[in-house]
Structures
1.
Amino acid sequence: MADQKTTTNQNSLFVIIGVAVVLALVPLVTQEAYLLHICILALLFGALASSWNLINGYAGIFTFGHQAFFGLGAYGSALMSMKLGLSPWVTMWVAGIMSAALGLVISLPVLRIRSIPHIAIVTLAFAEIVRIVCSNLTSLTRGELGLWGIPPYTSFSLPFIGDATFDAAHKVAYFYVVILLWLLVVGATYWILRNRFGFGLRAIRDSQIAAESLGVHLTYYKTLVFGFSSFLAGILGAFYAHYVLILTPSSALGIDIMIQIVAMTLIGGIGRLLGPTIGAFILTFGLEWLRGFGEYRLLIYGVLLVLIVMFLPKGLASMRLGFLRTRAAKKLPT
Amino acid sequence: MFSMPLSLFSEQIINGIVLGSMYALVASGLTLIWGTMRMLNFAHGEFYMIGGYVFFLLMSSLGIPSYLSAPLAIAAVFVAGIAVQRLAVHPLLGRPQWEFSTLVATLGVSIFLQNAALHIWGERFKTVPYFISGVVDVFGMRLSYQRLLILAVAIGTMLAMWYVLRRTRFGMALRATAMDRDAAMLYGVNVYQVFMLTFGIAAALAGIAATMLSSINSISPWMGAPLMLKGFVVVVLGGLGSFPGAILGGIIIGIVETLGVIAWSSQWREVISFTVLILILWFRPWGLFGVKEEA
């Protein structure tokens, strides 16, 4: 069993790199702005859902307030680059650290709670506080009117490759940045899972008491994974801000983002390395495809969510090998 | 806030209790579903919304008097609750990770119902008239009849719920299922029927809140979500699965919000109640009335 797991893990490293390479080739084939835009959103949300998967899928802590860290990163980086005149390349990391700090703060009350709904509601309440504060501080954020005039990433030129131009008309450079960010999130998850820390996290998910009795320091593991996952969400939020260039509290901090994350992770396969990414691509492209249905789009979306959890309970990532793994899965559910 | 005359202050406390009693109705539905089925119902706000719209249709479009259309609307929500349970929740029960998949399924139902309402009735806010107009003067406090009626309905509903849960065969079956599903099944309780009726009753409680509040708040496709969130805050505060906890939690949140709005302003209302929730859970993670859970 252990051997099988390690090989799967090594394979998935190749899969990650393969996916990134294939994606990196897309702009060589087509540079159509609309297609690239959808790909950028799918990768961004795939990375965001992956960062949530780290807490929920591996450590088993079901948080429902991940949008707070995403939105804080977005607003933090946008405001820093606007008011202080710093380059977005710098502010995105500062924003990530701010989100991580906030994540550490909210992990404190969550540490004491073990029941799933309590953690979900506390984190959701916290995220709603962040959203309401953001929309009420109109002098700073302009509230629901929207924060606009956010500078895009500073353009630069690379030797041998050419100019990397970042503005609303040029998507290619953004596309490569989001691929790198996705690699950062998924690669970090992969690296963590192969480490002692990752085994500790999964031990916590399977049984907190057993993990603790075997010497897993619950507080340390939980705060660290919370902080790291918030850090990743903050960076992704900062990218979002400097990509769409306009922010409102409901678009960057709304509960809709969290619903998307949950749906993507569940559709792709929770606790699987590439599950959230697969789910993000299916949902993002699916929602675009449903545009053909006009106003019925979200109606169909709601029904699809129900049908997917009903007929594909383990997510699409499990479908391929599902029939081979059923025997093992019965003995040891992962 | 502190220089307020005593009569105005106590008037606000009563307003807080009235508001809180409606939170308690919504929350007790959530706590009922959690207590018996161990799942979070994220479509609960939409039951509230359906109640509001059906009430509006019966009253404004068909001209049925409010004392008839309110019970009809509540019955409609009861049926809607059973339908949602049968179609979206029942097939998932007992499967692996079902506490998680039911959550996503109810989220899907919620998105569906919100957009269905948007599609059918549009985004214009709708209002219904008060049941009864006028104010009464009690010890210098000005209280509207509508608010007193709300309070009376809430108390009546709570007493009826207490009777159903404690004194009827169905209530016994429900409590047995909540305690131990397998044991209840062994003793011949049809737990799936209990689940279905629980969902219907919980939805009907949200429907009662809808008929009572739709003359004060307005009716829109999105009316349910904020109230559901408030309901979750209340049940977690009071202790998930605890009926008295839901009532007390609702009243506490109602009073805290009403006083908080006077002290600061209405745009900070949710921030106040959510902060109270996080602080209380920090020190009492199992809520005010909940049972401390091991593991």
2.
Amino acid sequence: MDTFQETIFKLKKYWADRGCIIEEPYDTEVGAGTMAPSTFLRVLGPQKYNVAYVQPSRRPADGRYGDNPNRLYKHQQLQVILKPTPAEVLDLYMGSLEAIGIDLSKHDLKLEEDNWESPTLGAWGIGWQVMLDGMEITQFTYFQQCGGVDLDHVPAEITYGLERIVAFLQGVESVYDITWAPGFKYRDVRYFDELQQSVYNFEMASVDRLWRLLGEYEAEAQGLIDGYRVEGLEDAAKRRFPLLSAYDNVLKCSNLFNLLDARGAISVTERVGVIARVRKLAVGVAQAFLDQEKYRAVA
Amino acid sequence: MLPFLLEIGCEEIPDWMIPSALGHLRDKFDGANVSVDGTGRRLMLRASLEARTADKEELVTGPPASVSGKPLEGFCAKQGVKLEVLAITETPKGKYWSFVKKTPGRAMGEVLAETLPGLITSIPWPKTMYWPSLGGPRFIRPIRWIVALLGSEVVKFDCAGVTSGSVTYGHRRLGVRGPLAVTVENYEAVLEQNFVIVRAAQRRAKIEAEVAAVAAAKGLKAKGDAKLLEVLTYITEYPTAILGGFDASYLTLPSEVLVTVMRHHQKYFSVENAHGSLAPNFIAIMNIPSDPEGHVVNGNERVLRARFNDARFFYDVDQKKPLADRMDDLSHVTFQAKVGNYLEKTDRLVALARELGGEDAAAAARLCKTDLTTEMVKEFTDLQGIVGGLYAKTQGASEAVAKAIYEHYKPLSMEDSIPSTPAGQALSVADKIDTLRSCFGVGMIPSGSKDPFALRRAAQGVVKVLAEGSLQVALPGLTGGDENLAAFFRERIEYYFREVRGFAYDEVNAVLAAGFADLRDTQARLEAVKAVRPTENFEPLAAAFKRIKNIVTQGGRAGEGAMDVALFTEPEQTLAAAAQQAAERTGGYAERLAAIAALRPHVDKFFEKVLVNDPDEKVRENRYRFLRDLEAKFSSIADFSEIVTS
């Protein structure tokens, strides 16, 4: 039986052997692997890019103080982006399951319709949730739009839910009983992260300050987006313009929105408005980033 | 004739879209013996086709015979023919230059190669993706291969990045993993060897038989579920049933919750014991032929256990705060942004439900939306109302109140039943009417295919409850004087009687024209019209009524005032006497209609012998009065002039 980390090694090796760059997790809080720049920005434009990375993903509202065997504040996704999508993409994906020890002639695998959409990112695609013996283990999406921009290629996004897959492989009922490394359980590594972050997210996060921070990060992001749009900016200035920093600020906004949501601080009516604010930023960065493509190409 | 086979090999198409996509292919394909079938990974079409399309000859006419010179040469040039082939043709309109244009038939393969790409990409899908890159054709999912065989020949064409051939693929993970060469003859057999059953009927039958068998092996019975059966038929290529179990301690949870988890979240059939109560088992359909090591059963049991644990957790948390204490929480739940929250809706509902159904309905209305704040409904939204009813009962509400809450979202569709109790019917109507009034009040009126708040379904539900239930409620009082809403209801009523109850459209028009404030009464009148219609006198009488109506309408103001019997001639006297008798006839609508129909010979005689537009103005006026009186007398059941007579 493979440990949690061993399974991750195998998946990374599998995709590395098939031409993927193996990146490390992005260092700003994200709600999903999709939000890391390696997906959100790299799917834009005509450049080819194949990448795989584990992304710890924060969903403040899903925290359960470490009590619930299946729900986590922070879970680990293995994100694969194939751009453009190879014709045998689903065979490749199924091969990856076999590479981590799932004999698909003895297990029931189904692809059930599940179209993905992120209103905050102005992104959507169509695809499936992959069900293995009745359990959802992967989200598979053909990206159509990101940051409100139609994509030149149709990249495939494969998002593995690592805790679920490994709990399945190890035959444990609770993610906390997963063996992470020899002698260490998932509990040993992550329990206090779940407990304390749940306490913070649900009980102690300062609502007023979070709202202020949201405003600050929003202003920072918007300021940069506007700065890029200033007329007469020279090519060299465009090339070095920090749109990637602008995007970091968008990610901060998104995480603050999720925190405020978990605190119950956002009413239903406000919700729509805040989502629109974040989407405006995401779309602004995406469009600018696409424009910057031609300047980046110049040495 | 040559056999033709088309297979569009695709990545998994959503199950619910497959039958209509196949229907489109069948309807749009030109050929004999066209049949279609398929799975999520392949849409198949078979047909018999001629080897060549037929030679065609058509007469092309040009300018009139009087034309010559340049214009005639122009016609020849345009048509690509020489002047010598032109001849003069006589037509009803005169003489024209013409020639016979011969178009030789073409090889069928050539024609198919041209038309198939368009046919394939014209399949309408509810949601599409472009592929393989921006500007590419739109389809439901990527097409990965196409088999197109006419007899033994490949029909060669390109479509959505794929070139057609004679190669298919079997089950994703079983049998041969590479390409499989097929012929028109061995296609199904090769696939079946490779764990694909192409025919949906065969997969459906396999599922049904195995579900029954695995249940029976344990002395159990699977709960029938036609919708789930369809889903499973189209998400599998080689379906096989397995029986799993769960700990009997979960049976303390409401069975509605257990069944919802199994059906909606896991696509399992639930299972009953000999006494008809839920057994701690489920039946899953897998897409492989066997589970010898029990991996699939174990995996599914494990997932179900986690789901049931969640449900139990939600149930326990919910019980800590009774529904009655959740009223204030409803002020935080938005009913509709422009309309307000659920607390405000509840206040309106209580008043309306009391008016329609008395105190039980009002008590149920007070609690009926509180389950929206429960963890159980947040997780399993399909169980709204049902959870409220179950919780209300355990928290001491009366059976009548609990049942009314439980059923108040009914009917969910026109196939669904209406609430079974008077209080439930009152609450169901009150809830939907409030939604309709509120939305129409702020201008949210459905148009075309846009109906985001399912207002049509709400109105249709009201119509169904009023027509089939026991409420004594007049519809006009419910629409609150909103003309748009009244018109909206009129459409829904027509739809209900026509499409749901199967009455002919002219019968519906005729009966609705006589009023529809009371839908139960409307229905009784419709049934009577339908019953009496086939009798020999009815349609001729209806035709006569149409004539009467036309005369009266064209007569304008003629014939206002009281009728003077002294001016009647013999046919009028006879008809008037018979009409009076018929009008006084008591009994059901059918008897009364039969009596009216029996007037036919008298009406016929009247029109035969009497000239309505008599030269004498007094007589003429009186005849108008008489006809107007007749029309009024017999229009309370239906407006017969709306009946379309053959």
